[in-house]
DNA sequence: ACCAAAATGTGAAAAATGTATCATTTTTGT
DNA sequence: ACAAAAATGATACATTTTTCACATTTTGGT
């Protein structure tokens, strides 16, 4: 056991969202010096049940033991973060800059190598030591450099075009912050992050709660 | 029909995430001058089936008709964005600044009134015309002003404390960007946005795909 | 080393979610 | 104005996801 992870195809989105949380909490517990991690403790921190943690691990092929190092290592393998990932950011606006200066994921082997913008004023400048290039050179750059993930922080209108260029450039994944629903294909994986949608979901839950408060 | 929305309690998370997307696309179609919206067209744009769109609308109580204005208005009611929402941002770092300058949600009636930080250097300064206050005055501010939503962009360590203050201050919702899993209670709604997790989910999907490519 | 207590792996039941169906209503074309 | 085509609302069905149950294994104390 613990070997044939990913044996089942197309693991559910819900599970794919829980895995990073497991990883995050295992890292925290490791940093806290915990000698062992139980499904119950993990569940409590994440806010679900121990049964679900075990079922998730089982679905993913099972893990040798529950020592934090083993778990972290196993989850790293699942999440594909045993090797470095190289990224470029498209769009040097506020969001792009925030992501560049957001160093949380460097620890997990994600590195941003370049930023692209269509504003000529930026040419030759840097953000946090990362060069800003003109977006007209993106194709060329992708052909010459290994880029695993493209981060889109452009306005909605050009997102699709960047996706096309990414596919042509052999990029494996797109982390999309533009407010359009880009779709994963067999050529490329897409993760859409819609901040406005997320705020509206919060608003919906607040509204739903108020509705019931006033109702009974 | 179209009246008793939210009749069923605890609508599913999946649905709660789709509603903002429906709203977004209806707004786009309205802007495009479309005279009518069909469940099929909406489905195509969002990437699901027309049956699901109809089912979702049915679950939410049904809508009078499919004219874009009617739909937009109906969805606005569900999402609770018929009145203005006032927000404060905690943390004046890169992420905080990005959110403040991110004006997308102003159109939907969300306004940021103040920013709080614990760095005394910021005192008296402004970001995009919004005053930066010291976080020590947060309690006082929440007592004196109507704040619907608190946006947390602090490090993980203080997030829980901000949540407590928010509850005491009568805030209805927390939009949390700190890498901790804050939980909704009957006092307050929480929407966690974990950027690192989202990137790891993307990495997982890429890895899963590569695994299958190499396997057969 | 033994027993008791706790935790895990796994298959099956239960619950939740999504899809298909179809009668009824609305729209479109002539 | 009428018939044909298309879309909707609501129910029934199928699938997916979560929870439960329990035999087996591991841990911890005496």
Strand content of chain A: 15-25%
Could you tell me the radius of gyration of chain A in angstroms? 20 Å
DSSP summary, beta strand count of chain A: 7
Q: Which blocks of ≥5 consecutive residues of chain A have pLDDT under 50?
A: none
Mean pLDDT of chain A: 93
Q: How do the SSEs of chain A run, as a string of H and E? A: HHHHEHEEEHEHEEH
The shape of chain A is globular
Oligomer: homodimer
Q: Give me the number of helical elements of chain A.
A: 8
Please summarize the sheet with the most strands of chain A: 7 strands, mixed
What is the terminal separation of chain A in angstroms? 52 Å
Structural class of chain A: alpha/beta
Biggest sheet: strand arrangement of chain A: 3-4-2-1-5-6-7
Helix content of chain A: 40-55%
Largest interface: chains, residues each: A-B, 62 and 62 residues
Can you walk through the features of this model?
Two copies of one chain form a homodimer. Chain A is of the alpha/beta class and 216 residues long. In chain A, 45% of the residues lie in helices and 15% in strands. Chain A contains eight helices and seven strands. Chain A has helices at residues 13-31, 39-46, 50-59, 68-79, 94-101, 138-144, 156-168, 195-215, and strands at residues 85-90, 110-117, 126-127, 130-134, 149-152, 173-176, 189-192. In chain A, strands 3-4-2-1-5-6-7 form a seven-stranded mixed sheet. In chain A, strand 3 (126-127) and strand 4 (130-134) form a beta hairpin. In chain A, helix 2 packs across helix 3 (50-59). Chain A starts with 12 loop residues before the first helix and ends with a helix. The model of chain A has no long low-confidence stretch (mean pLDDT 93). At the A-B interface, helix 1, helix 5, strand 7 and helix 8 of A face helix 1, helix 5, strand 7 and helix 8 of B. The structure holds a DNA duplex (30 and 30 nucleotides).
């Amino acid at each position: 056991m613990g070997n044939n992870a990913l044996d089942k195809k197309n693991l559910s989105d819900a599970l794919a969202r829980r895995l990073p949380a497991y990883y995050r909490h295992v890292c925290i517990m490791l940093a806290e010096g915990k000698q062992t991690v139980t499904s119950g403790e993990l569940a409590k921190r994440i806010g679900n049940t121990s049964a679900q943690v075990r079922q998730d691990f089982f679905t993913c092929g099972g893990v040798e033991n529950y020592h934090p190092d083993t778990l972290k290592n196993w989850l790293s393998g699942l999440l594909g973060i045993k090797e470095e990932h190289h990224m470029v950011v498209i769009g040097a606006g506020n969001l792009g800059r925030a992501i560049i200066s957001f160093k949380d994921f460097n620890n997990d082997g994600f590195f941003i190598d370049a930023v692209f913008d269509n504003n000529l004023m930026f040419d030759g400048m840097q953000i946090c030591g990362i060069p800003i290039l003109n977006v007209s050179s993106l194709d060329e750059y992708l052909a010459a450099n290994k880029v695993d993930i493209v981060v889109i922080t452009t306005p909605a209108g050009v997102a699709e075009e960047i996706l096309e260029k990414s596919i042509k450039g052999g990029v494996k994944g797109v982390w999309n912050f533009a407010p359009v629903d880009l779709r994963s294909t067999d050529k490329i994986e897409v993760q859409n992050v819609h901040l406005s949608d997320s705020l509206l979901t919060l608003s919906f839950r607040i509204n739903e709660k108020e509705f019931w408060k006033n109702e009974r």
